[in-house]
Amino acid sequence: MVFTCWKIKQVLWLLSPRVCLVRVHEIRDFFWDGIASRGASWLREEPIEEIWKQVILVPVCGGMMVGALNSLHVALKTPSEGTFLSDLKAASRPFLKAVAAAITLGTGNSLGPEGPSVEIGASIAKGVGNLFECNKERKLSLLAAGSAAGISSGFNAAVAGCFFAVESVLWPSPEISSLSLTNTTSMVILSAVIASVVSEAGLGSEPAFRVPEYDFRSPSELPLYLLLGILCGLVSLALSRSTSYALTAVDNVQKATGAPKAVFPVFGGLVVGLIALAYPEILYWGFENVDILLESRPLVKGLPAHLLLQLIGVKILATSLCRASGLVGGYYAPSLFIGAATGMAYGKFASFAVSQLDPTFHLSILEVASPQAYGLVGMAATLAGVCQVPLTAVLLLFELTQDYRIVLPLLGAVGLSSWITSGKTRKRDIGDKMFSVKGNCSVRSPSNLSGLSSSSVLATGVTHATELCELESSLCVDDSSTEFKDLEERISVSQAMRTRFVTVLMNTLLTEAVALMLAEKQSCAVIVDNDNLLIGFLTLDQIQEFSKLVKDGSAQSEVQKLQVSEMCHSNCEKCSVPWTVTPDMNLVSAQRIMARHGISQLPVVSEIVEDHRGHPIGLLDRECIHIACRAVATRESLRLSSIPKRHRT
């Protein structure tokens, strides 16, 4: 079986969805005109009254087709009686997604191909592992091999593909301790090499984008690159937040209107078309548009700094809406586009500023490099910030430029960008982390609050359920996310929440609250008022932190008399609740809220009264979600395994 799995990795990318990128070019040639090497810039030279219908209708048509494919994809997720039919449905979904991605990108919508390539490659690897009945460790190895091949073929960068697999699949996986790292790493390397060879044979040996001529003038420039890293981190954070808000907005609109999900990709395509009337560079055109930003194509005029700044904003908006609307694509290409625009604009402003200051202050020691150098570093820094793959970003750019001089400024910028966004762009849960929230204090302390209770509540009358990686779903390829991905949309919060939890009032002593949490084996408590309306949230970590602060200036007897209200009023953030969920929400929506607010637990309320408050009926955390998904998956597995026996009787 070990030898078989090794052979699987050798031929894995012969079945790879990389072939769909050829279809992207064919679809683009069918719908669009122009010269490929000029990207979408040719649209800027055409009279708008002649091209406006084409610019708007092509992305809309792509959205219509993707909406239909998404509906078919959802239909294939429904469980079927019979193992063969279920396996056939599961095998068809990755290829269906490849077609949807090709249509999305071929019609110019603002996403990228590398994310779907990695995700589809991982899905194929998982399916092949199931076919050959590989164990969990071997399946994880296959996932790593498929992921490495996706990046390797996407950028003709085998080394970056290997580190992507290690950084995004093997390191975060709980199975890593039991894997043979030497064996797995060698298989990942082999898969990346084969993918690069197949890609070169089918699509040529040129890199994904042309590396422009650039130079590094002086080590004194390093602070400028560090400042660029901070700027790219903020831009990455803006893209992450924009996507989160767009996902939530589309979800709320869908629930409020009851509109079918198939119509939202049409809306996303319409927005892209309208924006492209003024900014055609946002259309996906391979990496030719990135070449235009970097001014690496001959006979193609570069863009001024003020237009580059505008492109950053509209590209963030278009990409977020495309992802939220249901169009299929990844964030690697948009991240590189946004990073190139950020770096080029920054480089041009830096050159202008130094040239203006030099006659006055004689800054001959500060020689500023060409904007292309800042554009390249900005690409890697933004990719690292958005997708949280700093090593992959560094090695990708180093492999494409093959210039050791770029490493020092690159490491500094990528490190700062990744650090700025690391606390916001979360890919996986950190097991015991409690609430860390921001916002205004809304804690109230009625005069007659007293007492505390331990509640065991069963939610009734509710109909009808891993971490949501909001940007690149291909980064979430650990075992739990691939196994439970289809279940999270079908499982409701009421099926996964904890119904036994501790409640306290504002005048409850902290010592009593801790005693009750200890008795109930709970690490948190819900703060309510006399009407059992949610006020806030209390954790053992918060109590311990608060006790350290008051011990220095208070006697032991005074510490024993501290109440919940005193701790909450000392810091508005400590007890506030940023958001709540209701029992009829599905787990995808709940995890989206967790990711948006950077939290790992959510109170479940029967109905939202005001300010996201209500009567608490349960708690939802990531452990609950994992257990619920595993239980439902096991139940469905038992149901399917019992079907052949019924047929025989």
Automatic annotation (TrEMBL):
It is a multi-pass membrane protein. Residues 497-557, 572-637 form the CBS domain. Keywords: CBS domain, Chloride, Chloride channel, Ion channel, Ion transport, Membrane, Signal, Transmembrane, Transmembrane helix, Transport. InterPro entries: CBS_dom, CBS_dom_sf, Cl-channel_core, ClC, ClC-type_chloride_channel. GO terms for molecular function: chloride channel activity. Belongs to the chloride channel (TC 2.A.49) family. This is Chloride channel protein. It comes from Nelumbo nucifera. The lineage of its organism: Eukaryota, Viridiplantae, Streptophyta, Embryophyta, Tracheophyta. The gene is LOC104606921.
